[in-house]
């Protein structure tokens, strides 16, 4: 009979680290007391682990140690990494390796702001650890951004302390299993108490870690609602990317990206920028994939996930992965970061789903509540036409059919230009269907190559994406 592994408490984790005489480092905590190092002091045996504990809370004193920050912003990733590296360099400078054989050095740091007096700002911060797996190995880092959900400063401080212990323990004991490390961050912490909306692994301990997959774990495990990464695969803090920006997004399965997707994006974005009277620099463009879309009928296929985002990255697009099955939740999320214009490019079929009351049974206000959140901040739908494969009818906002009891509501939004047809679409793309392309790829039929953007077909073939098999694989398969 297999035994279920029992989760350790923060005290037990701190003690386990304290009892390992080869783990030795410093703690630098700014903004919420010294909540993490407190666990190590109380656990016992801390003299073998703690080189130094400090809280350079005063900005002038902190600047004297770590240097000044641009725009006087101290709760930033840049500040955190500067703290981590400075503290490790001090250990290396002041302790001789010859006198400390076998020791694995580390530095833990956080820079946070907790809930304000008026409770209008819940608080957030950066937390990280820089560590060695072996005394002869270079340093690795795990850095994450947190948003507090509790309404009490003391509770937030306690949560931060538990998180810090979990992070340090995970770095030393779970570095060979980053997924387990991520899930262990919530040991003794409720999902309702804390959100982790960005995480980054780097260094020799994580040489083969794809940070996009780690971001996916955050959404999959319910630790955050959405994650964003650049074409280069870099995880981004949503607030840094979306704050006070005009936002234009296109949702899809992108399995694979087709010329229809790109035509919808380019035509819709052009209309959006004209309506918003904004420039590309003032606008953030996102290609969104939902978790429900990734899961399909089963669990998430990580290879399939990477195939999709690699193609989008190759085309130069920023990707957002979310758990927002309903569009109104996506708009509500964007509105939390910006008060500027929001635009959504979508096809007729998706708009019909938006006007389906069955999706809003969980809302006390039903579809009216959903639309109040959906059509906010001057949000506009840019509607791409759809050619019915059976009737060959071209469906637009003018002839799509919504339920009888919603017709007046639909007319209201259309009359007020909240739903606009994309009229400059490429009509030759009307019969491109992604499911048919996917079938052709998996069955090695030719002809699909001309239905995807330039360069995409070669990428799919070179990497064997979406079930594509080259001639050698076909011979082995048959």
Short description:
This protein is an alpha/beta fold.
* Alpha-beta content class: alpha/beta
Helix content: 25-40%
Mean pLDDT: 92
Side-by-side strand order of the widest sheet: 8-7-11-10-9-12-13-16
Molecular shape: elongated
- What is the first-to-last residue Cα distance? 42 Å
What is the C-alpha radius of gyration, as a whole number of Å?
26 Å
Low-confidence stretches: none
The level-1 CATH class of the largest domain: Alpha Beta
Q: Sheet with the most strands?
A: 8 strands, mixed
The figure for the number of domains is: 2
Q: Count the DSSP helices.
A: 18
Looking at the structure, the CATH topology of the largest domain is Maf protein
Number of DSSP-assigned strands: 16
How large is the share of residues in beta strands? 15-25%
Keywords: Receptor
Protein name: TonB-dependent receptor
What's the SSE blueprint?
Blueprint: H1 10-18, E1 23-30, H2 35-43, E2 50-54, H3 59-66, H4 77-94, E3 104-113, E4 124-131, E5 140-148, H5 153-173, H6 178-184, E6 194-202, H7 211-220, E7 226-229, E8 235-236, H8 238-242, E9 246-251, H9 259-276, E10 283-290, H10 291-295, H11 302-314, E11 319-322, H12 327-335, E12 342-347, H13 348-354, H14 366-374, E13 380-384, E14 386-387, E15 394-395, H15 407-415, E16 419-421, H16 434-442, H17 456-463, H18 471-477
Helix pairs in contact: 1-2, 1-5, 2-5, 5-6, 12-14
């Amino acid at each position: 009979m297999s035994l279920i592994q029992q989760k350790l408490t923060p005290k037990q984790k701190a003690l386990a680290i304290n009892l390992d005489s080869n783990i030795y480092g410093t703690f630098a905590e700014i903004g919420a007391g010294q909540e993490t190092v407190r666990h190590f002091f109380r656990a016992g045996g801390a003299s073998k682990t703690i080189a130094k504990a400090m809280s350079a809370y005063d900005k002038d004193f902190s600047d004297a140690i770590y240097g000044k920050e641009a725009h006087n912003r101290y709760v930033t990733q840049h500040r955190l990494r500067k703290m981590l590296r400075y503290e490790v360099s001090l250990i290396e400078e002041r302790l001789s390796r010859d006198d400390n054989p076998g020791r694995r050095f580390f530095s833990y740091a956080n820079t946070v702001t907790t809930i304000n007096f008026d409770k209008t700002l819940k608080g957030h911060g950066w937390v990280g650890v820089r560590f060695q797996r072996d005394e002869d190995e270079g340093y690795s880092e795990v850095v994450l951004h947190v948003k507090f959900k509790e309404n009490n400063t003391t509770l937030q401080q306690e949560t931060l302390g538990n998180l810090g212990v979990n992070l340090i323990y995970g770095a030393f004991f779970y570095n060979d299993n980053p997924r387990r490390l991520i899930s262990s961050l919530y040991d003794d912490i409720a999902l309702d108490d804390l959100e982790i909306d960005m995480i980054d692994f780097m260094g020799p301990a994580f040489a083969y870690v794809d940070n996009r997959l780690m971001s996916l774990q955050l959404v999959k495990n319910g630790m955050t609602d959405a994650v964003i990464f650049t074409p280069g695969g870099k995880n981004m803090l949503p607030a840094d990317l979306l704050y006070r920006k005009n936002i234009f997004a296109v949702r899809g399965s992108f399995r694979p990206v087709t010329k229809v997707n790109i035509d919808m994006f380019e035509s819709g974005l052009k209309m959006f920028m004209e309506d918003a009277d904004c420039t590309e620099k003032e606008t953030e463009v996102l290609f969104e994939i939902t978790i429900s879309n990734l899961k399909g009928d089963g669990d998430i296929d990580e290879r399939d996930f990477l195939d999709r985002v690699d193609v989008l990255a190759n085309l130069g697009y920023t990707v957002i992965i979310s758990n927002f099955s309903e569009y109104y939740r996506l708009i509500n999320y964007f509105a939390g970061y910006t008060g500027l214009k929001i635009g959504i490019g979508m096809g007729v079929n998706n708009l019909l789903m938006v006007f389906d009351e069955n999706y809003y049974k969980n809302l006390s206000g039903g579809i009216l509540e959903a639309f109040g959140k959906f059509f906010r901040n001057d949000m506009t739908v840019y509607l791409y036409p759809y050619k019915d494969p059976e009737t060959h009818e071209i469906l637009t906002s003018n002839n799509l059919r919504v339920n009888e009891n919603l017709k007046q509501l639909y007319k209201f939004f259309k009359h007020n230009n909240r739903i606009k047809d994309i009229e400059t679409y490429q009509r030759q793309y009307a019969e491109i269907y992604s499911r048919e392309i996917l079938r052709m790829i998996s069955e090695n039929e030719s002809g699909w190559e001309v239905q995807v953007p330039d360069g995409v077909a070669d990428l799919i073939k070179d990497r064997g994406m979406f079930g594509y098999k080259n001639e050698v694989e076909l011979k082995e398969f048959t």
